[in-house]
Design brief:
By secondary structure, the protein is α+β, with helices and mostly antiparallel strands. Helix content is about 25%, strand content about 35%. The chain is built from two helices and five strands. Strands 1-2-3-4-5 form a five-stranded mixed β-sheet, covered by helices on one side. The protein is globular.
């Protein structure tokens, strides 16, 4: 299974039911891409010197997505000069 790619990708015509999750009034969630499909949304939150990432997987393979997002979240935390506290997958 290829690693998921975390990126800012516009959801619209492909998944109109997910557009509200991807483009809320406040915040800046990112899309998780897996095999050319949007597999979920992720949201970073920094508190002090710690970064927490919330993952909302839309597919059953949440463990693989969480691992891939955790790898990218480590890079994001390093770029910001802070520590990754955790990646939490929430299921709606």
């Amino acid at each position: 299974m290829p690693a998921a790619q975390v990126t800012a990708f516009r959801v619209g015509a492909q998944q109109p039911d997910r557009a509200r999750v991807r483009w809320p009034t406040l915040g800046r969630p990112g899309a998780v891409l897996h095999r050319r499909d949007i597999a979920g949304a992720w949201r970073p939150r920094a508190s002090g010197r710690r970064l927490t990432v919330r993952l909302d997987p839309w597919q059953a393979s949440a463990a693989a997505l969480t691992a891939a997002v955790a790898e990218k979240a480590e890079r994001l935390a390093a770029f910001r000069g802070i520590t990754l506290a955790r990646v939490a997958a929430c299921h709606r």
